[in-house]
Write a structure and sequence with these properties.
- The chain has 2 domains: about 60 residues, no CATH class; about 45 residues, no CATH class.
- It is about 75% helix and about 0% strand.
- It is built from 7 helices and no strands.
- Helix 3 crosses helix 5.
- The protein is flat.
């Protein structure tokens, strides 16, 4: 538990640097966090984000990481689907996609 608290303190103290080095623009992070811009900048300056706010920011700048086991399970499910005949021919899928695209284009055309 001590290690987790030390990690939290370290993250809290370096959040401004973490955000600067993020691949996302600060405006995007602020928007997605749900914290008003003035409040966000004040909290960043004072290094006073709540744990829940830091978690939300972390979820924004570090999207879900899929583990090796999850990937292998998904592959196995796909193989089981093929083995059990739960597949659709490529040409049928493409026909359905083309039909959906055509419907969307027609709907947009009618909206104008």
């Amino acid at each position: 538990m001590i290690l987790e608290i030390k990690n939290y303190i370290e993250i809290s103290n370096s959040i401004d640097e973490i955000l600067r080095n993020s691949p996302f623009k600060l405006k995007y992070i602020i928007e997605k966090s749900g914290i008003s811009e003035p409040t966000f900048f004040r909290k960043m300056k004072e290094k006073k984000f709540l744990p829940e706010e830091l978690l939300k920011i972390a979820e924004i700048i570090e999207p879900e990481v899929i583990s090796k086991d999850e990937i292998l399970n998904a592959i196995q499910e796909g193989l089981n689907d093929v083995k059990n005949g739960r597949i659709t021919e490529h040409s049928l899928v493409m026909d359905e996609v083309k039909e959906r695209i055509t419907k969307k284009k027609n709907a947009r055309f009618l909206d104008k």
